[in-house]
Specification:
This protein has 79 residues and is α+β, with helices and mostly antiparallel strands. It contains four helices and three strands. It has a three-stranded antiparallel sheet with strand order 2-1-3. Helix 2 packs across helix 4. It is globular, with a radius of gyration of 12 Å.
């Protein structure tokens, strides 16, 4: 089961704009942090690898990743 970023060029532009204008506080900031973590692997990554780098508790990390998948910012492969 791996997570992988999608539409990189689109969301990286949005990410940079949001970081510059909004900061990284709140739920949006947490989601952006997780996108940065996933992207830093430059390959599909397992949940436990993300969790090791995540500053958030396991339930929060899982919930945020699920939201990113539902918004088509990450893809999830269960095989």
């Amino acid at each position: 089961m791996c997570y992988e970023s999608t539409k990189k060029s689109n969301w990286i532009k949005k990410l940079n704009i949001m970081k510059a204008t909004e900061g990284t506080d709140g739920t949006v900031g947490k989601a952006l942090t997780l996108l940065d973590i996933v992207e830093s692997f430059h390959a599909p990554v397992r949940f436990n690898d993300i969790l090791e780098r995540s500053p958030y508790p396991k339930p929060s990390t899982y919930r945020l990743l699920q939201t990113l998948v539902s918004q088509d910012m990450l893809s999830f492969n269960s095989s």
